[in-house]
């Protein structure tokens, strides 16, 4: 009985979160729910949906004007090279200098390993690799 109640509560929470989400979040919630269902059945679907919604919100793609701005910026002479691969969803190391985007302060950019990347300046997480 308790298990059914937990499953029902998790599903309601998952659907409520996905319903109030933005476009990027809905994709994240749906993808998370499918992955969760494959791995853990109904409970996995609910948990995966909530997790996917959170990740989808964090990793919403930047607007085209932000991407264009970053594409037009010159590559600095003192470019940073790091050992790990730069991937979407992972934060940049602290030694990488990020520059705010004047038109949209929700985003910043950096040049790492010969690649321009757009990041969330609040947590340094890569949201898009431009090059």
TrEMBL record:
The chain crosses the membrane at residues 37-60. Residues 1-21 form the signal peptide. Pfam families: DUF1236. Keywords: Membrane, Signal, Transmembrane, Transmembrane helix. This is Uncharacterized protein DUF1236. The lineage of its organism: Bacteria, Pseudomonadati, Pseudomonadota, Alphaproteobacteria, Hyphomicrobiales.
